């Protein structure tokens, strides 16, 4: 499943290829991928030039000369940049024809991914971006005190809270396990017991781990693999997720479901 580092890798890879190109055609084969009216989406994006690609949380933002396309890959969404006509399969749901004879295609086996067009004035002031918390990489000045207030009001496991993108934006299942391990916090600990020092440790660990994962072009395990010729390397740096032995104390790594997500942790090193 692509998380923030994987989405950032897609952004950086595509920026080398498609900036300055014009969308000359839009073909939608599964309309549920589009949030809103598919016909309006086509009208708003065709003949527009791609000026930049940004990221907020796990959203890609294709900045057009007028307006924006938001794309969320969800569980297994992938983008392919290929010569026109090269990729044809039943899991390709949206295809943008580009002015250089290539296409940008969106593939999603599970059909959970979404695209939405947003005017410039609505980009950050309307759903979905307005509902997100601070981006852990883009904002270096997140106040631990403010996050603590939010967490202490919730009687839920800290892992569940960190997966809530409305609190902090960018962490997914893999990286939450790694952040909590580095912060020495058990994933099933109640948010009501989290301290200011815990939050400070979480913020520091999040930035360090996400930055390293971006440097390594993401984590390539299980369902997430590259669609742009880039294979991530952060799986070689994982300390606890999918592991069986703690690298610090050599005790057995525990595994349990928290909020429906498989969580890895060390009962000895995390409290």
Q: How is this structure best described in words?
A:
With 271 residues, the chain is an alpha+beta fold. The protein has six helices and twelve strands. It has helices spanning 4-18, 38-45, 144-152, 158-163, 173-182, 196-215; strands at residues 23-28, 50-56, 59-64, 68-72, 78-83, 92-98, 102-107, 114-118, 134-135, 168-169, 254-258, 261-265. The protein has a four-stranded antiparallel sheet with strand order 1-6-7-5, with helices on one face. Strands 2-3-4-8 form a four-stranded antiparallel sheet, with helices on one face. A hairpin with a 3-residue loop joins strand 3 (59-64) and strand 4. Helix 3 (144-152) packs across helix 6 (196-215) and helix 5 (173-182) crosses helix 6. The radius of gyration is 20 Å and the shape is globular.
The DSSP helix count reads 6
Strand content: 15-25%
- Secondary structure class reads alpha+beta
Q: What about the largest sheet? A: 4 strands, antiparallel
Mean pLDDT score, rounded? 94
The low-confidence parts are: none
Helix content: 25-40%
Strand order of the largest sheet: 1-6-7-5
Number of strands: 12
Q: Radius of gyration from the CA trace? A: 20 Å
Shape: globular
Terminal CA distance reads 28 Å
User: SSE order, as H and E?
Assistant: HEHEEEEEEEEHHEHHEE
């Amino acid at each position: 499943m692509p998380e923030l580092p994987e989405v950032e890798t897609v952004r950086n890879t595509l920026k080398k290829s498609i900036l300055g190109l014009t969308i000359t055609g839009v073909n939608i084969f599964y309309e549920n991928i589009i949030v809103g009216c598919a016909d309006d989406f086509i009208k708003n994006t065709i003949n527009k030039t791609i000026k930049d690609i940004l990221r907020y949380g796990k959203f890609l933002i294709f900045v057009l000369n007028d307006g924006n396309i938001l794309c969320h890959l969800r569980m297994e969404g992938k983008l392919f940049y290929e010569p026109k006509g090269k990729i044809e399969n039943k899991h390709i749901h949206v295809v943008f024809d580009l002015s250089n004879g290539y296409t940008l295609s969106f593939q999603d086996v599970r059909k959970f991914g979404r695209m939405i067009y947003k005017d410039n004035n609505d980009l950050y002031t309307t759903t979905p971006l307005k509902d997100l918390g601070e981006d852990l990489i883009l904002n270096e000045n997140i106040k631990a005190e403010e996050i603590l207030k939010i967490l202490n009001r919730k009687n839920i496991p800290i892992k569940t809270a960190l997966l809530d993108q409305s609190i902090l934006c960018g962490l997914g299942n893999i990286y939450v396990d790694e952040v909590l391990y580095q912060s020495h916090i058990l994933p099933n600990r109640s948010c009501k017991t989290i301290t200011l020092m815990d939050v400070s440790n979480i913020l520091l660990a999040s930035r360090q781990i996400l930055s390293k994962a971006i440097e390594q072009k993401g984590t390539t395990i299980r369902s997430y693999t590259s669609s742009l010729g880039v294979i991530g390397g952060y799986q070689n740096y994982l300390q606890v997720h999918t592991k069986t032995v703690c690298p610090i104390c050599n005790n057995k790594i525990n595994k349990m479901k928290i909020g429906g997500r498989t969580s890895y942790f060390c009962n000895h090193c995390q409290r």
